[in-house]
Input
Amino acid sequence: TVTYHDPCDLGRNSGIYDEPREILQAIEGLSLVEMTHCREMADCCGGGGNLAAVDKDLSQAIAVKRVREAVATGATILTSACQQCVQTLQMAVRQEKLPLEVLDVTELLWRSLEE
Output
């Protein structure tokens, strides 16, 4: 089971919400579940604008909130189409020792092609 994090730039700035989900739904056997805050209402990952360079604690707190929301969906994989989001969310998962793998959409797609 996979949940998708909408990146701020791709979503709110570019209006791209459906396309990443269409890619994910095309992966055979993948079950996509939505977080409570998704699409236009998605929370930031905590990495936007290089926030961690300015306020590491705030960045981590935002990221931890987001990964906890992902875990609450029952998903085992959190994916996003932004490398900054992936990196920030991976750090939060490691910090909190959560049972969640964070992957870029392209990584997830690549894995599905290898199977």
